[in-house]
Amino acid sequence: MDTVLFDLDGTLIDTRRLYAAAYGQAFVEVLGAPPSAEELRARRPASERIFLVEWYGEAVGGEIHRRMLAHYDAGASTLMGGFFDGIGEMLAAILSAGLRVGIVTGKSRFAFDVTCRHVDLSAFEVVVVEDDVERAKPDPAGIQRALKLLGGGEAVYVGDTPMDVEAAHRAGLRGAAALWAWADREGFEIEPDETVWRLARPSDLVERLGL
């Protein structure tokens, strides 16, 4: 294993409060009321804009996304969480071992740039965002693009949703389930599979990599 690719939100950094507020405000402004939690879960969002356009159409979905980005930018200084506990140490161990690291995220380029003003993501050699692909995860295009930019190699993709694991498998990679952000939820809804690394904490990835 010479490359580790990561999802971003919910895997490396905690942006739940920020996204909840930004989307909530945008939905109210455009629709009058936000969709229910059940409706959102049914959509299995793995991107910022793509799922909105598929749900509401280009005009309405695009407007919700535009307003969401404005609220994301405005709220980042107070609502954005940083790295989850243990991420810094995990990255230091991976980089010290000479492995290459990249990010494949459903985040837009704009939101990623806003995030970089508050969280140091300079260690990642390659970043693939929603703007770089036509379809959201579990489509493997983003992972495949990142691997191509890094020159190939044996890799693992670490993410906090079943779509991340599915995308990894569809790209021919091992999938790793980042469970450290799931303490207040029922769990990572995937079938037990020996090809999936279930990681309770970031240090578990270091151990799995044999570092």
Tell me the strand order in the biggest sheet.
3-2-1-4-5-6
Calculate the mean pLDDT score and round it: 92
Number of helices: 9
State the helicity in percent bands: 40-55%
Assembly state: single chain
Low-confidence stretches: none
CATH homologous superfamily name of the largest domain?
HAD superfamily/HAD-like
Beta fraction: 5-15%
| N-to-C series of helices and strands | EHHHHHEHEHEHEEH
| Architecture per CATH nomenclature, i.e. the level-2 architecture of the largest domain | 3-Layer(aba) Sandwich
| Shape category | globular
Secondary structure class reads alpha/beta
**Structural domain tally:** 2
Give a structural overview:
The chain is of the alpha/beta class and 211 residues long. It has 2 domains: 3-14 and 83-208, HAD superfamily/HAD-like (Rossmann fold), CATH 3.40.50.1000; 16-79. The chain is 45% helix and 12% strand. It contains 9 helices and 6 strands, in the order E-H-H-H-H-H-E-H-E-H-E-H-E-E-H. The chain has helices spanning 16-31, 37-43, 50-56, 58-79, 87-96, 109-116, 141-150, 162-170, 202-208, and strands at residues 3-6, 100-104, 126-128, 155-159, 174-178, 196-199. The protein has a 6-stranded parallel beta sheet, sandwiched between helices. Helix 1 (16-31) crosses helix 4, helix 4 packs parallel to helix 6 (109-116) and helix 5 runs parallel beside helix 9. The longest helix has 22 residues, at 58-79. It is globular, with a radius of gyration of 17 Å. The model has no long low-confidence stretch (mean pLDDT 92).
